[in-house]
Amino acid sequence: MAYEQILVDIKDKIATITLNRPERLNAYTSQMGAEIHQAFAELDENDDVRVIVITGSGRAFCAGADLSSGGGTFDRRERRDEFQLERVPIRPWNMKKPIVAAINGPAVGVGITLPMQWDIRVAAESARIGFVFVRRGVIPEALSTWLVPRLIGVARANELLMSGRIMSAREALEFGIVSHVWPDAEFQQRTRELALDIAENTAPVSIAITKRLIYGLLAEPSPDKANAVDSRAFWWVGQQADAHEGVTSFLEKRKPAWKMKPSKDFPDFLPPIK
Questions:
Q1: CA distance linking residue 11 with residue 28, whole number of Å
Q2: Read out DSSP for 65-88?
Q3: What secondary structure letter does DSSP report for 132?
């Protein structure tokens, strides 16, 4: 697929997706959404990609939905064909690669609810973040009323989702929205160091299984059932080539040479999350 509103670059096993509408502060459109998820699907099948990083071009990450169509922006009856573009070929929680949201500037509305579906969020010092939906006469979307309370707790989610206020990067760190805040001048390098650490030092199939278990067990109420799945996965992975390589490389004080590939070596008893 030829991309018009995003850029995709692969280097050192890291795929960087850049939201590329800087003149509109990377405001989100249905086409951008379709392109992001198509890129996800393609990159998840590429075993040469270990980590996906998403950032924004220019001074913003994503200023939310493109409101240029006026009052009917969120009326899907009026824009049915456009919203059909957003049919998702792959869900982030079913992907086998870790996804890092590198929030380099303002991230509001869908500009923060989509990153909440991803795995790791980091922010530049100058970033501003807000779930502004109730201030636009709509409601939080992209699964955020289900996901945000689970990630940061109900009380904090209530405040952010029901006030719609903008917060600083430091406050987002305190709330647990992001895991790191770095100075703007260091942000790109620090994000790359984080991604490189994962790409170079972790077993790709181990990452894929860990991610599936985290999201698959997020709503499991029974610790016994969770333990059964977790234990089966550990028993399975302990017999695989990468478990042998991980221990051997550690003892030999060398970098591991992982042999397994998520595209073909993923256990069949961990089905997609529905």
A1: 26
A2: B--TTGGGTT-TTTTHHHHHTT--
A3: -
H helical segments located in the chain: 30-44, 80-84, 110-116, 144-152, 154-163, 169-175, 184-201, 204-216, 223-237, 241-251
CATH placement of domain 202-274: 1.10.12.10
Domain boundaries, the chain: 6-199, 202-274
Within the chain, how many helices (H) and strands (E) appear? Answer: 10, 9
Tens digits of per-residue pLDDT, 115-160? 999 999 999 999 999 999 999 999 999 999 999 999 999 999 999 9
**202-274 and 6-199 share a CATH fold:** no
Name the nearest CA neighbour of 205 among 239, 255, 250.
239
For the entire predicted model, the pTM comes to 0.93
Residues pairing with 17 in the sheet: 8, 54
Q: Spelled out in words, what is the top-level CATH class assigned to the domain 6-199?
A: alpha beta
User: Distance (Å, rounded) from C-alpha 156 to C-alpha 163?
Assistant: 11
CA 237 to CA 222: how far, in whole Å? 23
